[in-house]
Specification:
The chain is 22% helix and 30% strand. The chain is elongated and about 75 Å long.
């Protein structure tokens, strides 16, 4: 649809201009037994009824983008005050058969210990379930492309930020930290090299506590240095 002519003598109304709808989608990830898992909801209604999708919804007229993302996150997981970051905007004209829909995608990283025992589906979803990130069902809309983009962004940020710590409890072992890096990169890492590299960054500090890991001696617990955030 072309834009109306810019006649300075005419008073324009909002309905004179095309207005695409705007949604937020939230890629919600957690780590369970060394495996990255993604929260998906099964759609109840058309389009793509019965298919799995990233949680999301239309933005209310009186809320900001971030507030809408936080609302969706709390509706699906029951948690708040966690890491949430805007990822990218997807706006292909044919991505939604209902109308022209532009979606602003956020991603959230959640320590599994903070999650409820079970997740709940919002009113427009039939059910919600955690799936292994690298073994997903067919997804609705362009959500497969959104997930691929999220993975690539996470792997890139892992190289120069401390984003992986968002998947851990405040205190953790080096083995647990290595599991986060391995899960995001989707490949094993050499234990000795990983520990030497991560300790050389000076972003960790030892605590006075230890944690049993298997039949071996207790493992040292570390925490992230707050002044090293980047």
């Amino acid at each position: 649809m072309s834009q109306p002519a810019t006649d300075p003598a005419k008073t324009y109304r909002a309905e004179d201009f095309p207005r695409p709808s705007v949604t937020v989608d939230v890629v919600i990830l957690t780590l369970v037994e060394g495996e990255l898992r993604l929260l998906l909801v099964r759609r109840r209604n058309w389009p793509f009824a019965g298919m799995w999708a990233i949680p999301g919804g239309f933005i209310n007229m009186d809320e900001s983008l971030e507030h809408a993302a936080l609302r969706e996150l709390e509706e699906e997981t029951g948690v708040r005050d966690i890491f949430l970051e805007q990822l990218y905007t997807f706006g292909d004209p044919g991505r939604d058969p209902r109308t022209r829909v532009i979606t602003v995608v956020y991603y959230a990283l959640i320590d599994a210990a903070r999650l409820n025992v079970s997740v709940r589906a919002a009113d427009d979803a039939a059910e919600a379930e955690w799936f292994p990130l690298y073994h997903l069902p067919d997804l609705a809309f362009d959500h497969a492309a959104i997930i691929d983009y999220t993975i690539q962004r996470l792997r890139g940020k892992l190289e120069y930020t401390t984003i992986g710590f968002q998947l851990l409890a405040p205190e953790f072992t080096l083995s647990e930290l290595q599991a986060v890096y391995e899960a995001i990169r989707n490949r094993p890492l050499d234990k000795r090299n990983f520990r030497r590299k991560i300790l050389s960054t000076d972003i960790l500090e030892k605590t006075d506590a230890t944690k049993m890991e298997g039949p071996h001696r207790p493992a040292q617990l570390y925490r992230f240095k707050a002044d090293a955030a980047r």
